[in-house]
Amino acid sequence: MRKLMTGNEAAAWGVRLAEVDYVPAFPITPQTEIIERLSEWSATGEAACRLVMLESEHSMLTAAGTAAATGVRTFTATSSQGLLYAMEMLYTTPGWRAPFVLVNVSRGLASPITLEPDHNDVLAARDSGFLQLHAATCQEVLDLVLLAFRMGEDATVRLPVIVNLDGFYLSFTREPVQVPDMEAARAFLPPYDARALHFRAGEPSAQGVAVLGGAPYSYFRYETHLAARAGLAAFAAGARDFAQRFGRVYRPVETYRCEDAEFAFVMMGAFATKAKSAVDGLRAEGWRIGLVRPVMLRPWPDEELAQALRGLRGVVVVDQNLAPGHGGVLHGDVLATLYQAGVPGPVVAAFVGGLGGRDIALEEFAEMARVVRTAADAGKSPPARMLYTAEELRQTRALQAVALGGGV
Amino acid sequence: MYRIRFHGRGGQGVKTASRILGSAFFAEGYEVQDAPRYGAERRGAPIFAYVRAQLSAIHERGVIARPDLVVVIDETLLPLPAAGVLAGVTEHTVLLLNAARLPELPEGPRPGQIVLMPELGEVAARGGLPLVAAACAGAAARLTGVVSGASVRQAVADELSALGAEILEHNLELALSAYHRMDDHTGTVQEGEAPAPSRLAPPNWIALPQVDVQHAVAAIFHGATSARVHTGLWRTERPVINPAACKHCWWVCTTFCPDGVIGVTAEGVPEIDYDHCKGCLVCLAQCPSHAIEAVLEREAGAVAAAASAQGAS
User: Quick one: pLDDT at residue B302?
Assistant: First the structure.
């Protein structure tokens, strides 16, 4: 079945096909449609899950982790401030080594308040121990939910996984989505086997214990790191099987028209498809340029990324996030990878753009390409820049003039 | 690629119209992307939705900057700069207006062609709002010349079946009748070319300066700024007080008005501030002497003129 559906609906379909047992939920824009749909299906029996509304995201994530620890397949979803409200449990649950899937629908964080997307919310969870996959289309949302369960439940991994999709640009946008057959999905994702590690009534055990002295703590923390790194192989194995069954190929790092490329944009999430459109336009005008898109943020696919960037003269990193006092998060990670892997050569032009859903126009992609070409010719990386026009400043100042009761 | 924008108000079925057109393109074998855009959801506030369709995969995303077709469900949005109805229109763009006659277009870019579509659907009956949506989608589909009536029929069924057989049947009739009323214009909307990046004016980027902290915080220091937003423009129907029937029990309507926009004159007569009345019609429901009636916003001018003529006579 191939039908038009929103990113939120695609996420719900992924959950339905994964035959999830338990969904603790709490509403927040722009995620709510996911749990609305699951609630509907739960009531009709089309999805055999039990959906329970909790009183906060903190409780919701606690319920998700504890349910997963009993060995049932668990899903939950949130967005933005909700993810941050759950932050304590976001760091706590990975150490339980109980896999489940959390869909985050990206939305910029306060202050000021917005409803529209950027990636600062999901990046706040970057170092939590959750693995992270970032979708760029509605099809990917569905597929990555299935792949996330497969990767997280792998015996070498056993960690919770976040699947991220962008608010509005995916959450409320309909695109054609191929929905796998239930039977095929079941064959790809058999029932979760928690093996010896699970809670059972009548078999008392203690979780979340204290360990003092540093050595035991370091041991358990590093085990989480090793498990996260094992996610690379688990994802690759899952993606191979997925490609065989469903014909769609996923890699930790997607490359688009990078053959013979001199330059590449590096971007994550739905805005990366805008870069594809720009790449098509620029290539038609003779540019040798492509797109490199990390689909996987945790574990960080350093080898695949280094491989994708090798041989380029220049790289344009567009961060749809801002770490105040530092700059773009992806920029730093890309530089570290290039340096560590000893990739010679490329200059790196860093841009921050798309904050709070701010559009990135085609002419801006063209200008970023010109900036990196000039920099590559000069052999020197340019200073980082935020995408912002004089007209935007004029409009913002006009709003401020009202708020301040006078001119700025 | 076809790039089509629908403009209307919350509650008029703007999103539904885009979904029907999107589904109709999809039924024709097109790759499709459709989406609504709005801020905080509220009935009557300007919203828009868009549809992209082409035979190969679509990478573009987000707001359509250069539309091939703009469908205006509510012409009262045209003068509103914030609604951006004519944003990015060019000689290539067709404007489909749900209006009987051509309204005055604001300053700025002009479409190459304007198609008027009277009686696309009344914005009148609140319960029947999707009717406008189905008709607009049907008309838009015909303008492209590549979507069959059968695909429109299927799309309306996909979108509205859940509302019951009677509503579905009525919508199908409206959608197909609107479709065929565009028979003379079929094919006027053409797929736009992807613009060549190098031919676009480069962005006028600036380096944001650091400003004084008072100007760097998103805070509102000035009082009563909300009065500057004319929320009256969200109205589709307006409450009108019939002075002959009003018993001057002003404490009823002024108390129940959720927006506090009913004032009282020195003579004790209630008076509605139409700059800010959103047309919720709570006052109409509460008025003990039934002295308030609802008038369609698009007809309000004529009603007001008639009332003043009556008053003068």
Answer: 58
CATH number of the domain to which A355 belongs: 3.40.50.920
Domain that holds residue A257: 253-393
Q: What is the mean pLDDT of chain A?
A: 96
Q: What is the pLDDT of residues A255-266, one digit of tens each?
A: 999 999 999 999
Q: Are residues A27 and A44 in the same domain?
A: yes
**Token pair 């001057």 is at which residue?**
B248
What is the pLDDT tens value at each position of chain B, 313 positions in all? 999 999 998 888 899 999 999 999 999 999 999 999 987 677 778 899 999 999 999 999 999 999 999 999 988 888 888 889 999 999 999 999 988 888 888 888 899 999 998 765 554 444 445 568 899 999 999 999 999 999 999 999 999 999 999 999 999 999 999 999 999 999 999 999 988 998 999 999 999 999 999 889 998 888 888 888 888 877 878 999 999 999 999 999 999 999 999 999 999 999 999 999 999 999 999 999 999 999 987 777 655 555 555 444 3
Is the CB of B34 inside 8 Å of chain A's CB atoms? yes
> Does residue A371 share a domain with residue A296?
yes
For A104-130, the pLDDT digits (tens) are 999 999 999 999 999 999 999 999 999
CA distances from B89 to A258, B69, B78, B186, B301 (A): 34, 8, 13, 20, 29
Are A73 and A171 in the same domain?
yes
| Whether the bond into B81 is cis, omega within 30 of 0 | no
ipTM: 0.94
Q: Report which of B67, B199, B193 is spatially closest to residue A363, judged by C-alpha positions.
A: B199
DSSP 8-state assignment for residue B198:
G
Whether B221 and chain A come into contact, CB under 8 Å, resolves to yes
A138/A87 same-domain check: yes
Q: Which of B23, B208, B214 sits opposite A393 (nearest CB)?
A: B208
Q: Taking CB atoms and an 8 Å cutoff, what residues of chain A touch B221?
A: 403-405
- The verdict on A119 and A203 lying in the same domain is yes
Is residue A363 scored above 60 in pLDDT?
Answer: yes
Q: E strand or H helix at A134, and its extent?
A: strand A131-134
**Å from A196 to nearest chain B CA?**
46
Select from B33, B37, B59, B200 the residue whose CB has the most chain A CBs within 10 Å, as the one to mutate to test that interface: B59
Q: What total number of domains does chain A contain?
A: 2
**Quick check: is A400 in a domain?**
no
pTM above 0.90, yes or no: yes
| B202 vs A: CB within 8 A | yes
CA pair distance A163, A269, nearest whole angstrom: 11
B221 to A115: CB separation less than 8 angstroms, yes or no: no
- Please report, for residues A25, A156, A296, the alpha-carbon distance to residue A103 in angstroms, rounded to integers and kept in the order given: 11, 22, 14
Same domain membership, residue A215 and residue A156: yes
Of A4, A271, A385, Cβ closest to residue B22:
A4
Contacts of B206 in chain A (CB under 8 A): 388-390, 393
CA distance A215 to A126: 24
